[in-house]
Design goal:
500 residues, mainly alpha, Growth Hormone, Chain: A, 17 helices
Length: 500
C-alpha cells in the first residue's frame, strides 16, 4: 500500500459525504415545492376545503422555521452524525405517515412532524459539510455543489412532483422521501466520520430556545395569516407583534446567557450578517418565481404539471453551471462582495423580464430567457453567501451557524410568499374592477397583471439585496486579512478564515 493511500481514502470519504449531505438537503428543499403539485389531487382524495389546504404547507413551514436554531444547536451538543441519523429517520417516518394519511388531520399532523425533523436535519447537513471540508479549494467546490442543490431543489420538486402525481399517485410525492432517506442513512453510517468533542459539554439554553422558537413561529404564522386573512387581520399583526417582542427578548437574553443558543458574535460579524440577509432576500425572490411562473405556465399557457417541471430545467442547468463557475473561479478571484452583488442585479434583470409576460407570450421567446437569467443569478448569489455564512465559525457552533442559513431562507420564503401573494391578489382585484363587466378574458388578463405586480416587487427586493451586499460585505483583501472572532465558550481554536 502506498503512503498516499490513506490521503486518497480520506478524500474519497469527504466527497462521498458531500453526496450524502446533498441527498439530505435535496430531500428537505424539494419538499417545499413537491407537495404543491400534489395538493389538488390530495384535496380531491381527502375532501378538505380550499380554506384548509394552505395548512398542508403552513404546518411544515411553522415547525421547520421555528425549530431550526434548536436543531442546529442540538447537532452541536449531541454530535453531527447522531443528529443526522435521527433527522433522517424521523423525516422518513413522518413522510411515510403523511403519504398514508387517511384524512386531512393526519396529513397536517404528519407535515408538522416532517417540518420538525427537517429543522433537525437541514442545519446538521450543512454543519457536516462545514466541518468535513476545511481545505479552501475543496471547501469551495463542495459549497458550490451544495449551493446549487439548495437553489435548484425547488425546481426539481416541481418536475418530480408533476411526474409522480401524473404517473403514480399524489401520495408518492411523500413516499419518495423514504427512499431518499434510506439511501442517505446507509451512506451516513458507512462514510460520515464521528467527530469527538473535547472539553466540557455546554448545556442547552432552554430560555433562549423558547424565546427564539416562539419568535420564529410568530413570524411564519403571522405572514401565513396575512396571506389568507389579509393585512388588516388582528391575528396577523398580533402574531407579528408578539414575534418581534420575543425576538428582542431573545437577543437581550443571549447577551447574558452562560451557554447562549446563538452566540451573537456569529450574526454580528459584518460578512456573515451580509450573507444571512442575502440568503433571506434570495429566498423571498425564488419563492415568487416558482409560485407565479408555475401559475402562469399552467393557467395562462395551459402547461401540464410535467411540462411545467420541464420548463424549469434550463434554469436548473444555468444555476448549477453558474454555481460551479462562481465557486471555483469568480468567488476566489473577486470575493462575495462583487459576486453576490452581481447576482442580485441579475435577479433584478430577470424579474423585470418576467413583468413583460402577457397572454400572447410564448415559453421559448419570453419565459425561457428570464428563467435562464434567474438561474445564473441564484447560482451567483448562493455559493458565496453560503460559504461566508459559516466561514470562520468555531466548529462547536457550526450547527447553529448553519441553522441561521436555513432560517434566513425559510423566513425569506415565508415573507416573500405572503407579501407577493397579497400584492398579486390586490392587483388582480383592481384590474377586474377597472375592466367591468367581468368576462373570462378579463379574468385571464387580471391574473397576468397580478403576476407582473409581484415580479416588480420581487425586482425591488433583489435591488435592496444588491445594496445590502454591496455595502455590508467586506472587500476581498479585508476579508483575507481579518482575524476570526471566536464565540465565548468555544473549546477549541476556530477554523482558519478562508481567503475569498
Amino acid at each position: 500500500m502506498t503512503s498516499s493511500s490513506p490521503v486518497a481514502t480520506a478524500s474519497r470519504r469527504r466527497w462521498l459525504t458531500l453526496v450524502i449531505v446533498g441527498l439530505a438537503q435535496l430531500m428537505v428543499v424539494l419538499d417545499a415545492t413537491i407537495v404543491n403539485i400534489a395538493l389538488p389531487a390530495a384535496q380531491t382524495d381527502l375532501g378538505f376545503s380550499d380554506g384548509d389546504r394552505q395548512w398542508v404547507i403552513t404546518a411544515y413551514s411553522l415547525a421547520f422555521g421555528s425549530l431550526l436554531l434548536l436543531g442546529g444547536r442540538l447537532s452541536d451538543l449531541i454530535g453531527r452524525k447522531l443528529t443526522f441519523v435521527i433527522g433522517l429517520i424521523g423525516f422518513a417516518a413522518a413522510s411515510a405517515w403523511a403519504g398514508a394519511a387517511p384524512d386531512f388531520g393526519a396529513l397536517v399532523a404528519a407535515r408538522a412532524f416532517q417540518g420538525a425533523f427537517g429543522a433537525l436535519l437541514a442545519p446538521t447537513a450543512l454543519a457536516v459539510l462545514t466541518t468535513t471540508f476545511t481545505v479552501p479549494k475543496e471547501r469551495a467546490r463542495a459549497f458550490g455543489v451544495f449551493g446549487a442543490i439548495a437553489g435548484a431543489g425547488g425546481a426539481v420538486g416541481l418536475l418530480l412532483g408533476g411526474v409522480l402525481t401524473e404517473k403514480l399517485d399524489w401520495r408518492w410525492n411523500l413516499y419518495i422521501n423514504v427512499i431518499i432517506a434510506v439511501i442517505a442513512i446507509i451512506g451516513v453510517l458507512l462514510f460520515v466520520p464521528r467527530i469527538e468533542r473535547h472539553g466540557p459539554r455546554p448545556r442547552l439554553d432552554l430560555p433562549g430556545t423558547v424565546l427564539v422558537s416562539g419568535g420564529l413561529f410568530g413570524i411564519v404564522y403571522g405572514f401565513a395569516s396575512a396571506e389568507t386573512e389579509g393585512w388588516g387581520s388582528p391575528l396577523a399583526w398580533g402574531s407579528l407583534s408578539v414575534a418581534g417582542a420575543l425576538l428582542i427578548a431573545f437577543v437581550l437574553w443571549q447577551r447574558r446567557a452562560a451557554h447562549p443558543l446563538l452566540p451573537l458574535q456569529i450574526v454580528m460579524d459584518r460578512n456573515r450578517a451580509a450573507a444571512y440577509l442575502s440568503i433571506l432576500v434570495a429566498g423571498a425572490g425564488m419563492f415568487g418565481i416558482f409560485l407565479f411562473v408555475t401559475y402562469f405556465l399552467q393557467v395562462s399557457l395551459a402547461f401540464t404539471p410535467i411540462q411545467t417541471g420541464l420548463a424549469f430545467l434550463p434554469m436548473i442547468v444555468m444555476l448549477v453551471l453558474a454555481a460551479q463557475l462562481s465557486t471555483n473561479i469568480f468567488v476566489p478571484r473577486f470575493g462575495p462582495k462583487i459576486m453576490v452583488t452581481a447576482g442580485m442585479l441579475l435577479g433584478v434583470a430577470g424579474m423585470l423580464l418576467l413583468t413583460r409576460l402577457d397572454l400572447d407570450s410564448t415559453y421559448a421567446a419570453n419565459v425561457l430567457p428570464a428563467l435562464m437569467i434567474m438561474g445564473v443569478a441564484m447560482g451567483t448569489i448562493m455559493p458565496g453567501s453560503m460559504q461566508t455564512a459559516t466561514l470562520g465559525v468555531d466548529r462547536h457552533f457550526a450547527g447553529v451557524a448553519s441553522a441561521m442559513v436555513n432560517t434566513s431562507q425559510q423566513v425569506g420564503g415565508s415573507i416573500g410568499t405572503a407579501l407577493l401573494n397579497t400584492i398579486a391578489t390586490t392587483a388582480a382585484t383592481d384590474y377586474v374592477n377597472a375592466h367591468l363587466p367581468v368576462s373570462p378574458d378579463v379574468i385571464a388578463r387580471a391574473a397576468v397583471a397580478s403576476y407582473a405586480s409581484a415580479y416588480y416587487w420581487a425586482a425591488g427586493a433583489f435591488a435592496v439585496g444588491a445594496l445590502i451586499a454591496g455595502l455590508l460585505f467586506r472587500a476581498r483583501a479585508a476579508t483575507a486579512n481579518r482575524p476570526t472572532a471566536q464565540p465565548s465558550g468555544a473549546d477549541d481554536a476556530p477554523e482558519p478564515v478562508v481567503a475569498h
